[in-house]
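Retro notes, item 3 of 5
We never archived the inputs for the phosphoenolpyruvate complex last cycle. Fixing that now. Sequence and ligand:
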Amino acid sequence: MLVVMQAHASEEQVRAVCQKIEAMGYRAHAMPGAQRTAIGITGNQGEIEPGTLEEMLGVQELIRVSKPYKLVSRDIKQDNTVIRFAGTEATIGGPGLAIVAGPCAIENREQAFAVAERVCRAGAQFFRGGAYKPRTSPYSFQGLGEQGLQIMAEIRQQFGMKIITEAIDQESLELVEEYADVIQIGARNMQNFSLLKRAGRCKKPVLLKRGMSATLEEFLMAAEYVMSEGNYNVVLCERGVRTFADHTRNTLDLSLVPAVQRLSHLPILVDPSHGTGKRNKVTPLSRAAVAVGADGLMVEVHHQPDLALSDGMQSLYPEQFDELMVQIRQIAPVVGRTVPGIGRQTPAVTARPPRTAAATPAAD
Ligand code: PEP
Ligand code: MN
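Structure as it came back at the time:
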C-alpha cells in the first residue's frame, strides 16, 4: 500500500500519517519527491484496511501496490534519486556522470596511491579498491582488510575522491561503514539477505551489484531489502551476467539500464571491467554504457596490470583510462549529461573513435 499525499501537504500532515501507520504496527517510509510525498507501508502480512488513512488531512489517495517491491519503484517516487556527498559536487544519479575508478584490490600503499593519482587527474570523483575480496579460490589474495581501508581513507584525504569499497560479511561491513563513503555489496552477495538488511541499517549509501544470474526483478528485490530497513540511498550496478558466450568473462547486459530506469527511481552504474573481463573491451562498452543512459561507470585501473594481484586482465592502464575519459566527455552531452571532475583534467588527448583494432591500445 502506498499513501500519496497532496502536492501541498504539510510536513506535519506527512508526519501524522506516518505515526498512524506505525501505530497500526507497520513501518512507514516517507519518500519526498519533486511533486509530492508518497509514503510506503511495509511490515504488513496481508491487506491494510485503508479506512482511517484515507480520511486523514493531506492524503490524496491510497494505491495498492501489486508488484513484489514498493520502495524501489517509480510508483512511490517519480523523480530520480540523486545521492549527494558532503564537500563535493559529485553526485550519483544527477546530471553529472559518476565516475568510479581504481584497482580491483588495494595491494599496498604505493600501488593504491599511484593509481589514485592517475584516476583523479583524469577526472574520477570516486575511488574504488577492494580491502575484502570475495575470491573464487581460497588461496587467492583475499585483500588487506582494515589496512586497505586505512589506505583508502588517506587517499580520500589527499585527493578528495570519495571511497567505494566492498563489504563481504557482517564483520567487514562494520569497518567498511566506518571508513568508506559508499558501501559496495558484490555480485556474490546480492542475495545475502541478512547482509542486505544490515546494510539497510547503515547511514552510508549502498552500491549493489547485480548477481551473476539475477533477473531484473531479483535485482530490484535485493535493493528493496536494503531500502526496507530505512536506507534509501541505493545505487544499482550492472556488471554482466553468466551466459554461453565465452569471448568475454560475463555478458554485459546494457539493456538492463533502460529497463531499470523505467521501473525504478534508483541510479544505475555500469561496470564494464567485470562485465567483460577483457581490457580491450572496457572502453568500447564504457562508451556504450554512457550512450545507453547509465548514471556512471565503475572501471578497474592499475598502474601495472601485469603484476596485479587480481583482475589484471581487465584493468586499464592509466593512459587508457585518460583516453576513456576523453571519449565519454564527448558522448555525455549527446545524452544530456556532464562529466564533472574533481582532479586536474588531463591535457586534451586527441579524441578518436577507435573503430579498428589498430586504434585500440595494444596492451591486453
Ligand atoms: C568488484 O567490484 O571488485 C567485484 C568483485 O565485482 P563483482 O561483485 O561484480 O564480481
Ligand atoms: Mn575486480
